[in-house]
Amino acid sequence: MTLRITREDVQRLTADGAVLIDTLPENEYAEEHIVGAANIPQKMVTAQATAHLTKDAPLIVYCYDLD
To answer: What digits encode the pLDDT tens for the residues 10-60?
Structure first.
């Protein structure tokens, strides 16, 4: 299920245990990302790359790209 959420929603959800996933390439993630976010570049999102993620908590997946 995909939802648009606000900054306040992100703060509340992460406080409740949600996991943040940033899908930017590694070099862009290294330059700037939300504190606490894990990096799984979009081109690397596979069942194997995401197998370690808990299925008991919401995932917040984001990508900020100006292109």
So the answer is: 999 999 999 999 999 999 999 999 999 999 898 888 777 777 777 888 888
Helices and strands (DSSP H and E) totals, the chain: 3, 3
Q: Closest Cα to residue 23, out of 49, 37, 41, 48?
A: 41
25 CB-contact burial (10 Å; exposed 0-12 / middle 13-18 / buried 19+): middle
Alpha helices in 16-66 (DSSP H): 26-31, 47-50
Q: Residue 53 corresponds to which tokens in the numbers above?
A: 């993620």
Token code pair at residue 65 = 């790209």
